[in-house]
UniProtKB/TrEMBL annotation:
It catalyses: 2 GTP = 3',3'-c-di-GMP + 2 diphosphate. Residues 181-312 form the GGDEF domain. This is diguanylate cyclase. The chain holds residues 232 to 543 of 553 of the full protein. It is an enzyme of class 2 (transferase). Keywords: Phosphoprotein, Two-component regulatory system.
Amino acid sequence: KPLDMVRLAAHISQVIRTEHSEPGRVLIIEDDRELASHCQSILENAGMQVTILQQTYQLFETVSEFDPELVLMDLWLPHVTGAELAALLSQTDRWAHLPIIYLSAESNSELRNQALLRGGDAFLEKPVDRDLLVRLCAARIQRLRELERTRNRDGLTGLLKHASIKEALQMQWQLAQRRPQTFSVAMLDIDHFKAINDTYGHSVGDTVIAAVGTLLRQHFRITDKLGRYGGEEFTLVLPDCDADQARKLVNRLREDFADIKFTSDGAPFTCTLSAGVADNHQFPKDTAEALLEKADQALYRAKRNGRNRVVR
Ligand code: GH3
Ligand code: MG
Ligand code: MG
Ligand code: MG
Ligand code: MG
């Protein structure tokens, strides 16, 4: 079926939104247990996932495991202030952008200002207003997700950027070291793309690249990692999938891509792509980096053997 190019952008943003419809994760740091579980039940009723941090010395262990998208923090804790914890988090690369909301009955505006200056984004008065709590948390989590999307995703295709897809590959590799599982890597490259740019111009070329992004999302699972490696090259990391299955999946994508009728000033044209796949069982002693290289070598063979094909 031909792709409606006009709807491309709308489709991409819609996919990004559904990817993000998972529940928000909130970490509560509050020594008043009653208040902590009160907030927990309010947020859980609103569909969020909540963890309560009992011991502040376990802060980094807990944030690494739970991967929160927001911290709801008491300003006064035993041995430490909320502002001090906020300052600690804001000094790390990973957690510098984590939104922090202070819970406080603090009426001294000087102390409140100091707490905000050390990290943290907002104050919620005790007793906590149920509706305000839910809306504030939801809004801040939404903003964080948008920020991360623009940081990690390529603007043209909505796919993961170069650094992010390589990170995803690294994580998948480490996961497979701990718990044996098969996964595949695919490298895709549009055929004779220079000719498309030369014939129809770069903006038409961009449309073709964006179409690959849309097709990729239609063909692959939400747990698959889809990236734009650069230019008109794409990298896929496919968990629980061996090279044979990967070859079949990518081949179906290849067929659908070849069927798209593009137009430029009323002139129709089509376009093809080549791909190489490799899995971690073919090359058990390799590194993640070497596996990517194997997929790239397979891609090179696909090009040399006539293009418009998938090789393992
Ligand atoms: P092959 O079949 O061997 O892959 O031939 P090719 O012409 O596709 O060769 P190659 O992969 O080396 O060329 C990629 C071209 O893609 C070169 C560059 O001008 C173009 N390109 C890279 N990034 C972009 C982009 O973001 N938009 C557009 N329109 N073109 C791009
Ligand atoms: Mg307290
Ligand atoms: Mg290329
Ligand atoms: Mg090339
Ligand atoms: Mg190419």
